[in-house]
Amino acid sequence: MPIDWFGYAYAATVAAGGIMGYAKAGSIPSLGAGVAFGALLGYGAHLNSGDPPRPLLQLGTSLFLAGLMGARWNRSGKLMPAGIVCMLSVAALVKNLLTYNRYLPMPTKGN
């Protein structure tokens, strides 16, 4: 399986956003959340780069960030940073669903 470059770039962007939030506003929660979610997404990209890929961590984290930041974007109306992270999260979610759909566990009927 090829390396998940998009996943690594997404993780770095989220982590950098948290660091920038701390640098500009002194926001410790922004720093903690950005670095924590960036680390989760980076590990998810690592799992996606394996053979076979395991996309569930990155899918779940992207879904959570899309919802959280989408709600913040809706409340504030500000594109930076909530709108950008929401759009990146939706793009990562769609990309992962399309790319890794054959590796996702499907529910089966139990007898």
Account of the 3D structure:
The chain has helices at 5-25, 28-48, 56-76, 79-100. It starts with a helix and ends in an 11-residue tail after the last helix. Helix content is 77%, strand content 0%. The model has no long low-confidence stretch (mean pLDDT 92). Helix 1 packs antiparallel against helix 2 and helix 3 (56-76) runs antiparallel to helix 4. It contains 4 helices and no strands. The longest helix has 22 residues, at 79-100. It has 111 residues and is mostly helical. The chain has one domain. It is found in: Membrane. It holds the Pfam family Tmemb_14. It comes from Drosophila grimshawi. The chain crosses the membrane at residues 6-23, 30-49, 79-98. Belongs to the TMEM14 family.
Q: How far do the termini sit from each other? A: 34 Å
How would you classify the helix and strand content by structural class? Answer: mainly alpha
Q: Describe the biggest sheet? A: none
Overall geometry: globular
Average pLDDT number:
92
Q: What Rg, in angstroms, do the CA atoms define? A: 15 Å
What fraction, in percent, of the residue positions are helical?
A: over 70%
Oligomer: single chain
Count of individual domains: 1
The secondary-structure element order is HHHH
Count the strands? 0
Poorly predicted tracts of residues: none
* Proportion of residues in β-strands: under 5%
Helix tally equals: 4
Family: Belongs to the TMEM14 family.
Pfam families: Tmemb_14
Subcellular location: Membrane
GO biological process, one term: regulation of heme biosynthetic process
